[in-house]
Design brief:
2 strands; about 500 residues; globular; mainly alpha; two-stranded antiparallel sheet
Length: about 500
């Protein structure tokens, strides 16, 4: 087969999103039209998702020696596009009432999604850094899109400063790794890791520790998590959704590839550091979530614990072949649940005709009795919260079961104990929200959401995610078969 045409086909998602960015830029400069740009963005994200069918036909191909497209990359690219499309759908009703320019929002989402796709396809530190910066820089503006609100502006400044410091750590860590290995390619470094015994070279270990520090910040792992609750609370709800899904998934996919190609967990020092970070994230995230009254802050702390669970799959990636399977299943369950809950938060804000950042000061008031005036939203939110809690017949239970299984099989008893304790804590604060949904509503809460046509795409999206969460929780075999087909070739 001819290589160049196949490389072009493999680049379809990047080309389509890049082309969409140009269309949006030209449209903004000619005439601003919120509906048109939202429609074009959503349709082209849909086309980029459909293009993965053709990409799959030519998968396992290099693009300019910097990107590598395989089944693993295609899987995470699909998740990133789905999350970006959902974010655009959720954001439309909020932006419709936004007082300033609306169209730049979609431009920044597309650029950030482009960075996420690059991260999912990288096998080189050059594209790793490029992808992270392309992903992160638009987030500075997106988090502070409500710039006339003090809390949003504060969140943007905080994330900008800390993200810049984290990028500095990443760049310096890459330089140290390059100085010892002489290459920026994962596979080449992985081969030299064993042949040259890089594991015993201090600069190499220090470089990787700095890289882990930077990526730990992006994943909001303890102790690099300090920005997370404030940014989740201050950012528009659709951007909090984007942060918890696209940002986390793309970083996690690239760090997984990094750990597959470069067996850094063979180093006892690195392995112990990761075990401590995972344990602290799991315990601390759940404990802090108990004390939150703002639902977005609660979800921020909850995300810390969920990424801690996922980190266990990275720690065991060379000892257990279930690791990639468990991380993939857990990631999908986490994705559906977060998209569903954030979508409901946006609809609740529509009910009260307020900005979504104004209704979360005490979720016990605004979400109380949701069942009695909107049973559909209540059912969806219940399913998503039960999935995050890891209750049976939901996809979240399957993911957590896999994580516990690989922890036991690799004898990580500390982590097993941490998972069990934190799961009990998690069930408590998730059930606290669920019980609140079924209480007698306050008189001010007895409102019914309008049947506005612009809300139908959100309702359809929520129905799809909640249905998949239950169906795959009851019968996960199709998802397991899909995950088994995406293992990177180097894993074997």
């Amino acid at each position: 087969m001819i290589t160049l045409p196949n490389q072009l086909i493999a680049s379809f998602p990047l080309i389509i999103i890049g082309f969409t960015i140009l269309i949006v830029l030209i449209s903004i400069s000619v005439k601003r039209n919120h509906f048109f740009i939202a429609l074009v963005t959503s349709i082209n994200l849909g086309f980029s998702l459909l293009s993965l069918y053709f990409v799959n036909k030519v998968s396992e191909i290099k693009i300019m020696s910097l990107l590598y497209i395989d089944n693993y990359s295609i899987f995470y690219i699909a998740l990133i596009i789905i999350s970006s499309l959902s974010t655009c759908i959720f954001a439309y009703i909020w932006l419709s009432k936004f007082l300033d320019h609306k169209e730049e929002f979609y431009l920044l989402i597309l650029i950030s999604s482009l960075g996420g796709i690059i991260l999912s396809s990288t096998n080189n530190f050059v594209t790793l850094f490029l992808g992270i910066e392309l992903l992160s820089l638009p987030l500075f503006g997106l988090i502070g899109y409500n710039f006339y609100k003090k809390i949003s502006l504060e969140a943007s400044i905080k994330y900008t400063i800390l993200s810049t410091v984290a990028s500095s750590f990443l760049l310096f860590g890459i330089a140290l790794v390059y100085s010892e290995s002489g290459s920026l390619n994962y596979i080449v470094i992985g081969k030299r890791f064993t042949s040259d015994l890089l594991i015993y070279k201090p600069l190499f270990l220090v470089g990787f520790c700095m890289i882990i520090t930077s990526l730990g910040f992006k994943l909001s792992l303890v102790p690099f998590h300090l920005w997370t609750p404030d940014v989740y609370q201050g950012a528009p709800t659709s951007i909090s959704c984007f942060l918890s899904t696209v940002s986390k998934m793309s970083i996690f996919s690239t760090i997984t590839k990094l750990f597959i190609y470069i067996p850094i967990t063979n180093s006892i020092i690195i392995a112990n550091i990761l075990i401590i970070i995972a344990f602290m994230s799991i315990i601390f995230g759940n404990i802090m979530a108990v004390f939150q009254t703002n639902i977005k802050r609660l979800l921020g702390y909850s995300s810390i614990s969920h990424i801690g669970y996922l980190l266990i799959s990275l720690i065991t990636i060379k000892q257990n072949q279930l690791s990639l399977e468990s991380s993939g299943i857990y990631m999908i369950g986490y994705l559906f649940s977060n998209l569903g809950i954030f979508g409901i938060i946006i609809l609740i804000s529509k009910i009260y005709d307020k900005d979504d950042s104004d209704i979360d000061d005490n979720f016990m008031n605004y979400y109380r009795g949701l069942f009695w005036y909107d049973p559909y939203l209540c059912l969806v939110m219940t399913i998503m919260l039960l999935s995050l809690a890891g209750i049976p017949i939901t996809l979240g239970f399957i993911g957590k079961f896999y994580i516990i299984s690989i922890s036991i099989m690799t004898h990580l008893w500390w982590l097993v104990g941490g998972i069990l304790i934190s799961s009990i804590i998690g069930v408590y604060y998730y059930l606290r929200i669920i019980l609140n949904l079924y209480m007698i509503p306050l008189k001010t809460n007895q409102k019914i959401i309008s049947n506005d046509c612009c809300l139908k795409p959100i309702k359809i999206t929520l129905f799809l995610y909640s249905t998949l969460t239950i169906m795959l929780g009851i019968y996960p075999q199709p998802l397991i078969d899909l995950i088994l087909s995406i293992h990177p070739r180097m894993y074997y």
